[in-house]
Design brief:
Helix content is 30%, strand content 16%. The chain is α+β, with helices and mostly antiparallel strands and 176 residues long. Strands 1, 2, 3, 4 and 5 form a five-stranded mixed beta sheet that branches.
């Protein structure tokens, strides 16, 4: 590594700016490069927001007229749970009786056996927000017991995850 490259990468502000241009999965893996990078990623609010670990400062704006808008859903949701949770539809917007905005996920649990990486108590996915800006409620409908039958749905389980500071991915997974 040249001395110029070394100086740039050892300047916190420059390194943070460079890391902000990485796609979220690469940013997550960048923590493995060295302890300096890991420390920066863990203490930088912009980097934490990019990883859905800290809420954005912008308020949640959801239109009340069609076409309804949704806050961006964590891109790790689909990639991290591929093969374990099969999401057949896009998340839907819902307004509760209390006027809260909620996101509804229609999921089918494919496998009840989670890989060891998911069981690790300190795994970063557990603390990731479901959306940015965060929603306070998420409704999970599990159609795993329904199959492909047409007509009235039996075996549909409905769970709700709530968190005033923003629903985290682990709260959706463990909503049962």
């Amino acid at each position: 590594m040249t001395s110029a490259t070394s100086r740039v990468l050892s300047t916190t502000e420059l390194l943070e700016h460079i890391l902000l241009h990485l796609p979220p999965p690469s940013l997550l893996f960048a923590q493995r490069i060295c302890t300096t990078w890991r420390s920066l990623i863990q203490r930088s609010l912009p980097l934490q927001r990019a990883l859905f670990l800290a809420p954005t400062a912008q308020p949640l704006l959801v239109s009340s007229d069609p076409p309804y808008t949704l806050p961006p859903v964590n891109p790790f949701l689909k990639s991290a749970f591929a093969g374990h949770i099969d999401r057949h539809s896009k998340p839907m917007r819902w307004v509760t009786a209390q006027g809260e905005h909620c996101i509804v996920f229609v999921v089918r649990v494919v496998s009840a056996e989670w890989p060891d990486a998911f069981k690790y108590p300190e795994a970063s996915w557990r603390q990731m927000l479901l959306t940015q800006p965060p929603v306070k409620a998420a409704s999970v409908m599990d159609f795993s017991g329904v199959g492909l039958a047409v007509g009235p749905r039996r075996g549909v389980a409905h769970f709700e995850a709530r968190n005033e500071e923003g629903v985290r991915m682990m709260e959706v997974v463990y909503a049962r």
